[in-house]
């Protein structure tokens, strides 16, 4: 029987939650100081219609003080007019290249306003793992850093041998299944690798916050479509409602549609060039200062990082002073990548 556990880390400028499935990271959610409170799953409010694009079957709406939100038009909705009011709920937060998407609840009344804020990280964790309070402290930070490392990875080992590569593009998420050194009869080995790939991929997609069109490039030939479809339904059951599973093509590809309910975590962890994002690295630096500060309670702390990370860290300085006192300093080093951080005590 599968076991899920929740972990909650409250750090400098960040509140991060992790869910593990049988000891491996399954979900990773982070709220940072300065986040837009209106750009989050679960926000409900009365929004004003800015424009109606019937050609594309959508409207652009906005909550007071917020950016544009895409509202798909359904046949059963009342006719929308520019300047009108609608009650909406944010279904998917914005992504790096996409607007947030809302769902229509009812015609709006009164003035544009926020009716219900997004759930907190702790509330999300309690919704995913209903047994007990999330674990906090050092165990939570360890779980967070393990989840971040796995979210940044591309290749994931399969139990019994082989691996999968998970890569997101603008159009879809591609998952390549590789047999690797899995031993035994080739057909049986391929079957077991494909079944294991569905289970591992379901966890990784939830961890990375990926959805939309997902295509598995299965290994081998002559696939047992019924067995793979059943395994896919089981692996992705917690992502329902909205999971769609297609037939396996003659080229050995299995297509699925997975609902998007969160922004990809890599939008936080990486910048547009694929380097570690400076705001994320700044929080890593703050964690390192706290660790070193606990190890040497009276020492002076010195950190070094890239110029971009130093600029991002400046916003966290007052928050870190509250944790360790004003006994740290940061210097930037030209040419360092954002991933390179050093902290020492003297």
Task: Give the uncertain stretches in residue-range form.
Answer: none
| Physical arrangement of strands within the biggest beta sheet | 10-11-12-13-15-14
The H/E string reads: EEEEEEEEEHHEEEHEHEEHHEHHEE
| CATH architecture verdict of the largest domain | 3-Layer(aba) Sandwich
Percentage of residues in helical conformation: 25-40%
Anisotropy-based shape: globular
Write down how many β-strands occur, each being a DSSP E stretch of 2 or more residues: 18
Structural class designation:
alpha+beta
Largest sheet descriptor? 6 strands, mixed
How many distinct helices? Answer: 8
- Count of domains: 4
Mean pLDDT: 94
CATH class of the largest domain: Alpha Beta
Here the CATH topology of the largest domain equals: Aminopeptidase
Straight-line N-to-C gap: 49 Å
Structure summary:
The protein is α+β, with helices and mostly antiparallel strands and 346 residues long.
Describe it for me?
The protein has 4 domains: 4-36 and 121-137; 44-116, Beta Barrel (OB fold (Dihydrolipoamide Acetyltransferase, E2P)), CATH 2.40.50; 153-258, 3-Layer(aba) Sandwich (Aminopeptidase), CATH 3.40.630; 275-345, no CATH class. Helices cover 27% and strands 32% of the residues. The chain has helices at 121-128, 138-152, 186-208, 225-235, 266-269, 278-295, 307-314, 317-324, and strands at 4-11, 14-21, 24-32, 44-53, 58-62, 69-72, 85-92, 100-107, 113-116, 155-157, 163-168, 173-178, 212-217, 244-248, 253-258, 301-305, 328-332, 342-345. The strands form 4 sheets. It has a 6-stranded mixed beta sheet with strand order 10-11-12-13-15-14, covered by helices on one side. The protein has a 5-stranded mixed beta barrel with strand order 4-5-6-8-7. Strands 1-2-3 form a 3-stranded antiparallel beta sheet, with helices on both faces. A hairpin with a 2-residue loop joins β1 (4-11) and β2 (14-21). The longest helix is centred in the middle third of the chain and has 23 residues, at 186-208. It is globular and about 65 Å long. The termini are far apart.
């Amino acid at each position: 029987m599968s076991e899920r556990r929740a972990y909650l880390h409250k750090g400098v400028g960040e509140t991060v939650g992790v869910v593990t499935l049988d000891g491996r990271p399954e979900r990773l959610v982070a709220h940072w100081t300065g986040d837009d409170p209106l750009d989050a799953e679960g926000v409900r409010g009365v929004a004003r219609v800015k424009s109606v694009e019937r050609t594309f079957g959508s409207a652009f709406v906005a909550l007071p003080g917020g950016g544009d939100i895409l509202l798909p038009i359904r046949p059963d909705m009342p006719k929308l007019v520019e300047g009108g009011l609608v009650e909406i709920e944010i279904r998917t937060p914005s992504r790096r290249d996409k607007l947030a998407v809302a769902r229509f609840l009812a015609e709006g009344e009164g003035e544009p306003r926020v009716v219900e804020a997004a759930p907190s990280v702790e509330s999300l964790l309690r919704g995913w793992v209903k047994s007990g309070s999330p674990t906090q402290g050092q165990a939570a930070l360890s779980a967070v850093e393990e989840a971040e490392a796995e979210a940044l990875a591309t290749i994931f080992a399969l139990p019994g041998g082989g691996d999968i590569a998970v890569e997101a593009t603008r159009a879809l998420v591609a998952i390549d299944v590789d047999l690797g050194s899995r031993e035994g009869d080739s057909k049986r080995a391929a079957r077991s690798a494909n079944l294991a790939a569905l289970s591992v991929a379901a966890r990784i997609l939830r961890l990375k916050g990926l959805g939309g069109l997902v295509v598995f490039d299965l290994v081998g030939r002559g696939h047992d479509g019924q067995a793979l479809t059943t395994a896919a339904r089981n692996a992705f059951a917690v992502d329902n409602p909205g999971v769609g599973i297609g037939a396996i093509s003659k080229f050995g590809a299995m297509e699925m549609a997975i609902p998007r309910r969160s922004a990809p975590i890599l939008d936080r962890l990486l910048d547009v060039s694929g380097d570690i994002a400076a705001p994320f690295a700044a929080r890593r630096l703050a964690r390192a200062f706290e660790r070193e500060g606990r190890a040497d309670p009276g020492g002076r702390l010195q950190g070094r990082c890239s110029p971009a990370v130093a600029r991002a860290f400046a916003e966290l300085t007052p928050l870190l002073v509250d944790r360790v006192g004003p006994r740290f300093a940061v210097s930037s080093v030209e040419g360092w990548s954002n991933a390179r951080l050093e902290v020492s005590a003297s």
